[in-house]
Amino acid sequence: MSGGAGSRIVVTGATGNVGTSVVRLLSEDPEVGSVLGLARRIPGWSPERTEWAAADLASDRTDLSAHFAGADAVVHLAWAFQPTHDPATTWRTNVLGSIRVFEAVAAAGVPALVHASSVGAYSPGPKDRAVDESWPTHGWPDAAYCREKAYLERTLDIFERDHPGIRVVRMRPAFLFKRESASEQRRIFGGRFLPGPAARPGALPFLPDVPGLRVQALHTDDAAHAYRLAVRSEDARGPYNLAAEPVVDAEVLSEMFGGRTVRLPRTAARSAIAAAWGLRLLPASPHLFDAVLRLPLMDCTRARVELGWRATRSATEVLEEFLGGLREGAGADTAPMRGRKIG
To answer: pTM higher than 0.85 for the full model?
Structure first.
């Protein structure tokens, strides 16, 4: 690790789904001397050797350079998914806030930046084979999430050109789940009143089989392990795909829920989502649904070979754990991840 034993790592977005796992793993690493977690609201949870500071990336009054001073690496995870009806707000936090992070990394002389990109940064791609990190990252322009992730890929292209001495890593994980993220992700994507009991086997008599709805999943702790490896390895640079097997589709879900699949045209599924989103009954936008249908499947060979990383849980194990968390209203002691059981 750059800086050797006792290194100082700063994590933005440290109280969310990925941040809590990354902070915990770094705090347990004997080569890490201290972790500074940045978040808008200071949590009650605080692992060993971890300190907290309040920081709002959307505000240009936040002095990120002061927080980054003396750091051996910055892990940038902060991201706002909502409000989907106001993309200018998410742009201020996600894009302009990230640019402030990058500029502060350079100003503070931090030698390494590990950035949370996403499968959502990729241009539409195949569902019958996996692509590597050379696949274009232009996103799906109609979805704010993908548009923002893709824009930051271009921003980092320029950043790396202008700051060749800073080691930049771009993590591109699949959809990330863990038990403790269930309540947060239900609020973000399904709505706060989505009943948890609906996530049990036998509750759904049939599951829609929408053409193109084939995605990859990964346990958040497995993704956090890849972040830790990237922080520690002075040779790690560039993008890394992260995903677990098997690919999740209607057949896999039907086996988990014990229901039969029913073919549903894309237009019908999108119309239902668009109606619910327009009535503000569903937080996830139809534009994100469009993007999910077009996301490519990712090949993770580079992460296995260069980082020595591999998923320790299958995608089905990840989803079973997450669904159990939904039923129980699982959460964690941070503001974004408060547990709440509905239904």
So the answer is: yes
